[in-house]
Amino acid sequence: MFTADISGGKLGIHGVAGLTLLAVGVYSARNATAVAGRYIEARLGKPSLVRETSRFTVAEAVKHPVKMAKRLKSKPQDALEGVVLSPSLEERVRDIAIATRNTRQNNGLYRNILMYGPPGTGKTLFAKKLAVHSGMDYAIMTGGDVAPMGRDGVTAMHKVFDWANTSRRGLLLFVDEADAFLRKRATEKISEDLRATLNAFLYRTGEQSNKFMLVLASNQPEQFDWAINDRIDEIVNFALPGLEERERLVRLYFDKYVLEPATGGRQRLKLAQFDYGKKCSEIAKRTEGMSGREISKLGVAWQAAAYSSEDGVLTEAMIDARVDDAVKQHLQKMDWLRGEEAAKSLTPPPAGVTSSGGKMGFNLPLSETPHAQEVIAPVLEINEKQAPMNLSAEGESDDLAGHNSTAESSGQPPASTDGKMREDSPPKDGTPV
Ligand SMILES: Nc1ncnc2c1ncn2[C@@H]1O[C@H](COP(=O)(O)OP(=O)(O)OP(=O)(O)O)[C@@H](O)[C@H]1O
Ligand SMILES: [Mg+2]
C-alpha cells in the first residue's frame, strides 16, 4: 500500500503509520527473538565455561531417556561414601552436607564454601558428592579456563550465572583451581579482560542466592582477591591423610582395584594368598605424606601389574614393588617442590630453625611464611561477627595435629590477628568490592 503513496511523491498518513508500524514490528520481533534466544540458551545450552555438569540438556534427555529417568528417581546417597577424611573434618563436612540439603529443601539461601589444601585430598570428590547428596545439580568450572577467554570472559561469566539461575534443583557451582582467576585485582598483574571478568563474577555473587551455591577449591587461597574472601561463609581445610586415614584409603583402593576384580568372576585378575589386612597397614605406614590421589593411583598400579603379568596373579612381592616405586616417585616430587620453595624463599629461616611448616601441608626445610593465615583469619573474623556458629566447627587442629603438623600452620586461624593482615584487606585502588 505504501508503494502507491511513495510513488505519488508524498507520504500519506497511512504510509507513515504503516512504516512506523513496520519499524516497530521489525524492532520488537528482533528484540523478542533475542530475548527468547537468550532465555532458551540459558535454559538449554551448557555455558562454555562449564566443563562438566550433572544437569542434563533437553538433547541429552531425548538421547538417553532411560538414564535420565533413573537419575531423576535416584535417592540421594551418603555425601561421604568413598571419601576418607579425618574424624573431625568428616564431622565438619557432614554438617555442611546436612545444612546444604536442608537449605535446598527449604528453599533457603545457600552458603558459599572454600575448600583448600594440597592436591589430591578429596576436594573435587567431596564437592560432587555434596551436590548429589543434597539433590542439587553440580557444574564444574575451572579457573584456568577464564583467562584465555580474553574479552569474551565477561559474557561467558554472565552466561554461567544466567544458566545457574534457571536451575530448578539448585546448582552447586564448583570453581576448581579458583585462584587462577580470582586473583587480587589491586596487587597482582592481571589483564584488563581478566579484571573485568572477575568484576562480573563479583557482581553476580554479591548477594547470597537460593539458586546456586558457590564452592571454591584452591591450592593457594592466599592469592584470592579480598572481595572473594568476603563472599565465603565456610572455610574447610582438606589436609593430607594421616596414618589412620591412609590405612582406610589403602584398604578402600585395595578393595576397589584388587579384591573386587579378583572376586568378581569374569576378570582375569587373581590374588595370591597372604594377610591382606596386615599388608594394608604396612603400606599405610610406608606412604607417609602421600595424598588420597597418590594412594588411589597405587591401587590402579597393582591392578595393572596383575593384568600385565603372564598368569594374572598379583603376588605380595608385586604389591611391594609398586609401593617402592610410588614411595620413590613421591620423594622425587617432594624434592622438586622443596627446590621450588627454596628458590622462592629469599630469606633463609632464622638460625636454629631447620624445618617449619611449608605451604599446603608439606614439610619443607625452607619455606615462606604462610600467607594463607593472613587472608583467612580476617575472613573468619568477619564470619564470626556475622555468624558465630561457623567458627565452632574450626576444631580441626586436634585431629590434624597427629598427622600433619604443617596443616595447621597453613590453614588454622591464628589466635590473635595483628594489624598486618589489614594491609591485605580491601583493595586500595578503589576497585568495586
Ligand atoms: N579423601 C579421599 N578419600 C578417598 N579418595 C580420595 C580422597 N582424596 C583423594 N582421593 C582420590 O583421589 C582422586 C582425586 O581427588 P580430588 O580430585 O578430589 O582431589 P582434589 O583435592 O580436588 O585435588 P586438586 O587440588 O588437584 O584438584 C579422587 O577421585 C579419589 O580417587
Ligand atoms: Mg580438584
Automatic annotation (TrEMBL):
Residue ranges of domain AAA+ ATPase in the record: 109-242
InterPro entries: AAA+_ATPase, ATAD3_N, ATPase_AAA_core, P-loop_NTPase
Compositionally biased intervals (Polar residues): 403-415
GO biological processes: mitochondrion organization
Record's keyword terms, sorted: ATP-binding, Coiled coil, Membrane, Mitochondrion, Mitochondrion inner membrane, Mitochondrion nucleoid, Nucleotide-binding
Region of interest called Disordered, as start-end residue ranges on this chain: 343-366, 386-433
GO cellular component, one term: mitochondrial nucleoid
Main location: mitochondrion
Subcellular location: Mitochondrion inner membrane; Mitochondrion matrix, Mitochondrion nucleoid
Gene3D superfamilies: P-loop containing nucleotide triphosphate hydrolases (3.40.50.300)
Annotated GO MF terms: ATP binding; ATP hydrolysis activity; zinc ion binding
Domain of life where this protein originates: Eukaryota
Similarity comment text for this entry: Belongs to the AAA ATPase family.
PANTHER family, sorted: ATPASE FAMILY AAA DOMAIN-CONTAINING PROTEIN 3, PUTATIVE ATP-ASE
Protein name per UniProt: AAA+ ATPase domain-containing protein
Annotated organism of origin: Oreochromis aureus (Israeli tilapia)
Biological classification of the source: Eukaryota, Metazoa, Chordata, Craniata, Vertebrata
